[in-house]
Amino acid sequence: MAMAWKTRNDRVRVVLCGDVMIGRGIDQVLPDPCDPELREPYVSSALDYVRLAERMNGAIPRPVSSAYLWGAFLDELRRAKPDASLINLETSITRSGDFADKGINYRVSPENAGCLADVPIDCCVLANNHVLDFGPDGLRDTLSALDRLKIKRSGAGKNAVEAAAPAILEIGDRARLLIWSFAFATSGVPPLWAATQQCAGVNFLHDMSDDTILMIARQIASMRLPRDIAVVSLHWGPNWGYAIPHEYTRFARALLDQANASIIFGHSSHHPKAIELYHERLVLYGCGDFLNDYEGIQGYAQYRSDIVAMYVVDVHASTKNVIAAEAVPFRIQKFQLAAASEYEREWLCRTLDRESRTFSTAIENAGNGRLIVRDSLGRGSPPERA
Asked: Which of 57, 103, 78, 54 is nearest to 4 (CA)?
């Protein structure tokens, strides 16, 4: 459900946002919530997360509209005028009560999931550690809901073939965006969630070996046309911490080199991590959460997971190279995306710059609410606005 916005013919603009977790407390403040039951060690009702958020930042009006959740993001999205917008949907769309025995389970009702189409979102990547929180039936409900909302999906399916298939977004008559989505056990995805010929599940990778890289490169080569731009989504690594293992860097760069991907869309960490411009291609090692119900939860305050980012990336339609990239910070407050303050933007800029310098990439505060990504030669510019 792409917006009818036009961009210059020589570029394709992609907006990428990390983990969107609209279950649990957020589901409860929308008009048609699921049963609030939870089976967590310390919390038994999703309403407890609403109370924690209200204790921290004040009352949340109930029920809220779906537009309420997105807040300042809506205006930024309109200004960006993307050809495609992608998120990692880390919530099962179902009313199923079949809780997976994993401690934390996210679900949003099919009615409340309509908020995804109101943004709008063009594609949800699903290879993550929450899409089967309510079992195979919950996953099938999720797939059906996204199909009904006319939102493309990749990374999970009714069988291995469907889970491995890329989402395909037509960008007018000048390009296609192909999005592959994979999950690793390091992000908390149980290997048993891997889709098989007979069973629904996620597109699971067991390792980052040369054979795995070659397999992905062959998959992409078998489908791509000359006008296609490839995005590879990877759900990898722990929730907290900035460290990027060498194995991850090697894997990401190999996919850019051997699979000719333009963007590596990494996520799983609850906070933004390093960015790398590599040979005019982009690696987002961890986009962080984009929308969650964590307000009032104690611990890990040093990571400021309430400061989140939307990534705007321009890809040259012919060369497939990234020609501009920026991050637009927001703050989650009262289950809503609010504009980040100048202090919060500068904090995120310093943090991302510190982590990205390891990869010869710099992050600069443009002073207009946006953070520019530049390579070691100083190349890079903010995506143009109409």
From this structure: 78
How far is residue 72 from each of residues 77, 159, 163, 296, 336, measured CA to CA in Å?
9, 38, 33, 21, 8
Check: pTM over 0.70? Answer yes or no. Answer: yes
Rounded CA-CA distance 291/266 in Å is 16
Task: State how far the Cα of 370 lies from the Cα of 327, in Å rounded to an integer.
Answer: 6
Q: 3-class SS at 150?
A: coil
- Structure tokens that stand for 327 in this block: 């991050």
Q: What is the pLDDT of residues 120-174, one digit of tens each?
A: 899 999 999 999 999 999 999 999 999 999 999 999 999 999 999 999 999 998 8
Report the pLDDT averaged over residues 175-201: 97
pLDDT score recorded for residue 120: 86
Distance, in Å, from the CA atom of 373 to the CA atom of 184, rounded to the nearest integer, reads 27
What count of Cα atoms within 13 Å lies in the side-chain half-sphere of residue 89? 31
Residue type, 97: G
C-alpha distances out from residue 249 to 4, 19, 88, Å:
36, 21, 21
Hey, is 330 helix, strand or coil?
A: strand
Domains and CATH numbers, the chain: 11-375 (3.60.21.10)
Handedness of CA 242, 247, 248, 253 (dihedral sign): positive
| pLDDT tens sequence across 305-323 | 999 999 999 999 999 999 9
Q: Which 3 state secondary structure label does DSSP give 193? A: helix
